[in-house]
Structure formats: C-alpha cells, structure tokens
C-alpha cells in the first residue's frame, strides 16, 4: 500500500512541477501574443514555427520526465509508452502545416476539454475550476471551427487563460501533497 501511495505521490509531484512550468510559459506566451497579435501570414507562420518549437520542447520534456519516472519505478511498459507517444507527438508536430492549424487546435481543445471535465469530476479539490476550464476549451473549439479568422486573437486569450488556470490548479494539487 505504501508503495502505491509513494508512486501516486511521485506522479502528483511531477505533475505539479510540469503544471507550474507550463503555466508560466503559457502566461508569458499569451501576453506576448496579445501585445503583438500580428495580422499577416508571415507573422502567423513565424508564430506557428515558434509554437512548434515550444510544443516540441514541452512534449519532449514532459514525455521524458514521465518516461524516466516510470522506468525508475520499474514500470517499463508505462515508461516505454510515454517515450513512444512523446516521439510520435513530436514527429506529428512537424508534419503539419499552417492550413491545418485550425482543425488541430480545435480537436486538441475538444479532447482537452473532455479530459478536464472527466478529470475534474474525480478531483477532491479544484474540481469546479477544472470543469469550467473544460467547458471553456470546448466552447473555444466551436468558435474556431465556426470563425477561423479570429484564431490568432483567440489563441492569445486562450493561452493566457490556460496558463493562469493551470497555475491556480497546480496550487490546489500542491495542497493534496500536504
């Protein structure tokens, strides 16, 4: 029992650390995007390449951190799956071009929204905030699909909101460790 509790606590610590890091970067990126919204495709392409680079770093960091943790705790299959999913995600990031961004972001938001809602229902703390974030994710996905022209500004506000909400959620999860 203690082994399972230590494992769960280790995953929670890793998740909180990842959440704080991604929240800080999300807030910074959101503010930069709001200050320089751009309007040309050249700027959008440059922003997309930067987004691809940052996403590659995030996914690589997260996948490796989780994979190493699973390997360290003798959960080889879980570690291998995290490493494989991380590698595949990084490959797919670089295969897509700007024209598919709208659909990819909308799909990501819907899946994240569903995951947040389901995950929020299982949390003892921070549940309402996570469910709210899930609903916001799905609503933004619908807006993107209906009116893709608003995507750059919507992404800026979403990234800022996402970063702030993840920061608050990480504080709630950190309270579970005490």
From TrEMBL:
Transmembrane segments annotated in the record for this chain: 16-36, 42-64, 76-94, 100-118, 130-149, 155-173
Protein name, per record: HdeD family acid-resistance protein
Signal peptide: none
Keywords: Membrane, Transmembrane, Transmembrane helix
Lineage of the species this protein comes from: Bacteria, Deltaproteobacteria, Candidatus Desulfacyla
Organism the protein comes from: Candidatus Desulfacyla euxinica
């Amino acid at each position: 029992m203690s082994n399972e509790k230590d494992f769960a606590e280790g995953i929670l610590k890793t998740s909180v650390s990842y959440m704080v890091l991604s929240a800080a970067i999300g807030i910074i990126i959101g503010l930069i995007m709001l200050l320089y919204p751009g309007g040309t495709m050249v700027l959008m392409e440059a922003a997309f390449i930067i987004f691809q680079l940052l996403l590659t770093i995030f996914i690589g960091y997260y996948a490796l951190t989780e994979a190493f943790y699973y390997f360290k705790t003798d959960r080889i299959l879980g570690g291998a799956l995290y490493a494989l999913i991380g590698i595949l995600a990084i490959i797919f990031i670089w295969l897509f071009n700007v024209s598919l961004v709208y659909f990819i972001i909308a799909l990501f938001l819907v899946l994240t929204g569903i995951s947040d809602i389901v995950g929020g229902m299982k949390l003892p703390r921070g549940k309402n905030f996570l469910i709210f974030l899930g609903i916001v994710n799905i609503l933004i996905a619908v807006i993107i699909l209906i009116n893709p022209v608003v995507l750059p500004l919507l992404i800026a506000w979403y990234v800022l909101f996402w970063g702030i909400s993840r920061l608050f959620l990480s504080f709630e999860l950190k309270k579970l460790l005490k």
